[in-house]
Every structure is written in structure tokens, then in C-alpha cells.
Amino acid sequence: MGLTSALNTSLNGLSLNETAIDVLSNNIANAGTNAFKSSQVQFSTQLARTLSFGSRPTATNGGTNAKQIGLGATVAAIIPDFSQGSITNTTTPSDLAIQGDGFFIVESQEGNVYTRNGTFRLNSENVLTNSQGLRVQAYGVDDDFNIINTELKGVQIPLGELSIAEATENVVMSGALSPQGEIGTHGTLLETAPLVIDGAGTALTSTATLLSDVRLASDPATQLFTGIPADLELTAVKGGRTLDTKTLAVTATTTVQDYMDFLDQTLGLQSNGVPTDADGIAVGVDLSGGMIRAKGNRGSVNDISVPVGSMVMNGGVVGLDVPRNGEAADGESTFTTFVVFDSLGEALTVRMSAYKEAETTSSTTFRYILESDNNSSGIPGDVDIALGSSTVVFDSVGNVADQPNNSFSIDRNGSAAVSPMVFEVDMSAISGISSSGSNLNLKSQDGSSPGVLTSFVIDEQGVINGVFDNGVIRTLGQVVLARFTNPGGLLQDGGDTFREGVSSGEPLVSTPGTFGAGTIRAGAIELSNTDIGRSLVDLIVASTNYRGNARVIDSTNRLVDELLLLGR
After folding, report:
1. Residues 6 or more apart in contact with residue 479 via CB below 8 angstroms
2. pTM for the whole thing?
3. Which tops the pLDDT comparison, 564 or 496?
């Protein structure tokens, strides 16, 4: 009985050490496998054969211990080691390493599986996949590039295919506005000669009069606007700058008011919130004393003029001159031109002028005016270039003390872009001190022309940021991680992936860096956590144990042979 038991026990020992050597050889074979997790075998003693239960101490005997002979060992567990492997950098932005706890989620045909190996690549559809072609699961984004954290989906990074533009929302100006110049007191006044509406010399008194009836009082027999219908073209000048030519479609129903609106819009006259000059004439175009007159804004850079010959219809010059009456616009002033972008990335030119409007013992106020030839309301005949005006107030040391309403808009109804395009102007970087006059410059604006996705980066929280060639950065998704309360209970699925096991628990999905999940390092991979040195030592121990068990079998066999010899 004893020799047979020894044979069986040693045979069991051979089997156990074979298992240990199998596990160790697998660890060593995968020492170069990215994110491989090594395992170790744990043994436990099997049920022992009891020869005696022992006895209690008595008055004459100290008692005896139990007598038991073990029946060998068994494999108690094969425990995977999910400790952190070393992380090494790569040159591929799609390579990801987890620093801490968690698994990447990839989608297989049978459902989601989990992996620590972040060697990912974009496939032919620009979808992020692992080496087996399984799609990496992440949170997607909506049409405005906001993360949708309610469902998981494949990550698509359409390099060279996705194009976006950024509408300007914020404009920051710089420069200096000199407090030493003169205060603007008046704008330029343009005024036609007296006008009549018929050959009898009846004075023009109503803006509802048909434009075709208008004549000069000095020549009442000659109509100024003939050959109707026709396009009236006007090329005005402002601050010495030639403005874009604007067109009014003149028909049999076009009135004097239509012409006045056209003149007002072409000149970009800003009247809202602007103080009236001492002569009592408000900024804008009106009819007074049979004459059409246009009053401009203050500031020398806003000096308006309609040069002789600048009004053309049917290929000929319209004989309605609008000369200046009085002095040109005055006041310390400056202007600049800059570009902003609408939602389609189209460049829009904006002109900004500023003039000194008021001064007290403790502050200086400048009014700035914005206009754009790209302003388009979509209304036939509307050519208004005026965007609005506001003020900036400097304190006694030249710092901006107040900048009230600084929101402006450009109508884009004549295009497919979002309309109106609203943006804010920040004047806080402008100085109220200057010894060399005033100047304005564009410091920055946050819009951009159309751009194509050229690269991407993934941050520690797993957010995928797409970089476009116009400098815009947009969120394309967010890689998530799954944690398990007992990762040792996961089932290896081959190809560096794991499945849920009955003892692993449910996956706890979260974004990197939250709820105990590790963070992500992009452009890096996690190496195998196999300890080669220890594995070789363990292999020597297991081999020695194996040889020891084999020697027991050999010795037991010799004893059996001796017993057989006794029977001869």
C-alpha cells in the first residue's frame, strides 16, 4: 500500500511540475509580446491519509500527535499577474498605453472583448483597429464635435477627408489711440444742388417722388435718370479710400427715398447712438430745402465724398453731383482693415475706424465704427456696409475703463453660411497713451478658412483631438476603459484579448483617469510584464522538483523489484 501510494504521489508531482513548466514557458515565450500578462501556478496539498488521530495528555502520558501521510499536491490556481508593464515610446500617434488599471474595449463578432495591447492602426476606412482588425470602442461626437457619452462606437479618424471651417466669434484689437489729438466736432456734409420734379420747376419736397422725375432746378427740362430700367452704379470715397462700387436697380417705381437709402448704405453712414453735430444735422441722408444731403461721421478717416463722374447709368455719367458743403470731417482718428471668417470659411473684410469723441478731466472716449462690403441681408437693393459702432473709454492713465456693447454681426443671407455671423470685439489691449498719433491693429481672431484633417493627438483622458491644416483643433471622440473588480477572473480569448468570466464581474466603463481607471499615453506601448530572470529561476526550481519526483519513482521501483525477488 505504501509503495503504491508513493508511486501515485510522485506521478502527481510530475504532472504538477509539468504544469508549472508549461506556464513558465508561456511566460518566457511572450516576453516580447506587447502588454502580455504573465501567470504563476499555485499548488496546495491534497487530502492526507490519517494513520492516527493522536491522543490527549493524561496523568501518566503527555499525549501524542496525529500521524498523517500526504497524498501529494494539486494545482490550486493559475493566477495571471496584471501588474503594470514597462512603457516605451513609439513614433505612431495611434499607439496607446494604459498607465494604471483598465482595459481597452474592442468589438468582435461575438461582442466586446478587452485588451491591454494598445497597438492600434487606422484601416482603409480610417477606423481605429487592433492587429486582429477589431474596432476600438469609444465615445463619438455630434455634428458640433461635442462628445456623446451615452453609447460606444468605433473610432473614425478621417485623415485627408474631413474638412471644416471656423466662424469668427472673437476679435481682439491692439494699438494705441492718442488722447492728444483734437476732439471730432463734425462730419462731412454733402449736398446736391436744388432739385425739382417737373419742367415747371416744382421743388422736390417728398421722398416718395419717383426718381425718374427728378431734375436740377437749374435745368428743369432735363431728367437726370433716363433709360429706365437700368442699373445705377456709384463709386464713393471715404477717408481717401475708394469704396467698392455699389449698384441700384432703377425701375419705373424707384423713388427718391430708394436713392437716399442707396447713398446712405454705399457710404456706410452710422447713425445709431452717434451724437448729432452742432449744426443739428444727424448722420445719414435726408431731403431738405429741395436738396438731398448726406451727413457723414466724425473723424478725418470718415471724410466722405462722391467725386464728379462717380455715378454712372447706361454707360453715361449722371449729372447729379453731391459736392461737399463746408469743412471736411475732423477729429483725431485712425482706421485699419482686417479679415474674419464665416461658418463656411469665407474670408470677410472688415474696416474699423476710430475717432476721438469726448474728453473729460479723468477720461477720454473714442468711438469706433465697423463696416464690411461683405454684409448681405439678402434683401434686393440692400447694399448696406455699416455694421455698427461703439465706444471705448480710457482712464487718466491710459487703461481701458469701459467698453460697452462690443457685439457686432455681419449678415450672410446671400450665402449658405450661418447668418447673421455674430462676433465680439475686445478693445482691452489698446492703450490710451501715444506720442505718435493713433493706430489700430488686429491682434487675433478665432475664425479660420476651410481646413482638412491632417493629424490627430490623443490626450491622457483619451480625448482624440483632430488637427486641421488651418490650425483648428476639433474633438473626434474619446477612448474609454473598462475595469473589472476581479481581472484574474477574465478568460483569455487569444490575440491579446480577454472575455468576461463568471468570476470577473461586470465591466465598469469610464473615461481614462476617472473612477479608478488609469490614464492613457499616446505614442507609447506597454511591454510584457514577464520577469525573465525570475522565470528562469522558477524554471530551474520546477525542473529540479520534476527530477526529484522522477527519482522517487525510480527508488520506489527498485523497492518493488526487491519485493518481487523475495518471492523467487
Report:
1. 96, 104, 136, 138, 155, 458, 462, 464, 512, 520
2. 0.72
3. 496
